[in-house]
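Lecture notes, continued. The same structure-token format from the folding unit now serves as the input rather than the output. Read the line below as a description of shape only.
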């Protein structure tokens, strides 16, 4: 009887853990603008260190959340200002085993440190559009200012 009691407690803990993960995901994704991505958190081993998750666009920020985490806060926040794409490449070596076939890896420069982001090829276009988009009336530091002669 004692064994059944402990099995019941274990199942209850497992169900509560799963429920918390789903509630967390629902809270984070409620506003839309969500993309699937992986962020490289460690470069110690070649092809390793990728953390699967999802990103949420909030104004001028891309907030990256880990898929398997209890945290309500993002693991990494990338600001559109100061973020640029240096390199676009296909997964290589062991990366091909952990990522879907149509994913692209972007090596970006950030104000703090370089970061690698992997996402679906169809998502890359939207990400690059968001990166280059500027609110009306604002000047983008990436765009050159031209003095046009008066006509």
């Amino acid at each position: 009887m004692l064994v059944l009691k402990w099995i019941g407690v274990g199942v209850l803990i497992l169900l509560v853990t799963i429920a918390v993960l789903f509630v967390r995901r629902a809270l984070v994704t409620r506003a839309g603008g969500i993309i699937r991505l992986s962020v490289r958190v460690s470069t110690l081993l070649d092809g390793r260190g990728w953390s699967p998750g999802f990103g949420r666009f909030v104004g001028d920020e891309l907030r990256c959340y880990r898929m398997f985490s209890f945290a309500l806060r993002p693991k990494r926040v990338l600001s559109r200002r100061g973020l640029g794409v240096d390199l676009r490449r296909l997964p290589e070596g062991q990366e091909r085993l952990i990522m879907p076939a149509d994913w692209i890896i972007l090596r970006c420069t950030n104000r703090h440190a370089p970061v690698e982001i992997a996402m679906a090829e169809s998502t890359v276009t939207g990400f690059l559009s968001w990166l280059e988009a500027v609110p009306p009336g604002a000047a983008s530091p990436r765009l050159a200012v031209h003095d046009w002669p008066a006509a």
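Point for the exam: Strands lie at 34-40, 50-58, 61-66, 76-79, 84-89, 103-109, 115-120.
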